Amino acid sequence: YVVAVRSSLVMRLGIVKGVEVEADSDFTKLISKIRQTINKYHLRLELVEYPNKQALEWALIGKEVHAICSKSETSKPGSEPTYQTSIRVHRLFEIMETELTSAKTIVTYITVPNLEGKH
């Protein structure tokens, strides 16, 4: 017998629960663009929701997610919102940096310190 197993690699993207998704077409377009981009590399996108921005940032530092995406806090009131996408996996950053070229998206690479203590 021959058994074929197809492994599926997943990119976990952290978002703030409810805040980002509520009828925000720019955010929806961004998520679609990310999904489209990683599909080329046979990756699946899994959205992971967090209750607030602090929990979102801790998820990235704690390596629960590969990247986080949220509204940029530097957005001026009344202007078009911009989104900050922070990525801790360098290869994903390289891919996203070349693909996410919209002026509404800022892509940054975050170096996450190894939190495990050395014995």
Count of beta strands: 5
Low-confidence stretches: none
Q: What value does the average pLDDT take?
A: 85
Count of discrete domains: 1
Topology overview:
Blueprint: E1 9-16, H1 25-39, E2 43-50, H2 53-61, E3 67-71, E4 83-87, H3 90-99, E5 105-109
Parallel strand pairs: 1-2, 1-3, 4-5
Antiparallel strand pairs: 3-4
Give structural notes.
The protein is of the alpha/beta class. It has one domain: Periplasmic binding protein-like II (D-Maltodextrin-Binding Protein, domain 2). The chain is 29% helix and 26% strand. It contains three helices and five strands. The protein has helices at 25-39, 53-61, 90-99, and strands at 9-16, 43-50, 67-71, 83-87, 105-109. A five-stranded mixed beta sheet has the order 2-1-3-4-5. The longest helix is centred in the N-terminal third of the chain and has 15 residues, at 25-39. The termini are far apart. The model has no long low-confidence stretch (mean pLDDT 85).
Task: Provide a short characterization of the protein structure.
By secondary structure, this protein is α/β, with parallel strands linked by helices. The chain has helices at residues 25-39, 53-61, 90-99, and strands spanning 9-16, 43-50, 67-71, 83-87, 105-109.
Any key phrases for this structure?
3 helices, 5 strands, alpha/beta, globular, D-Maltodextrin-Binding Protein, domain 2, five-stranded mixed sheet, 119 residues
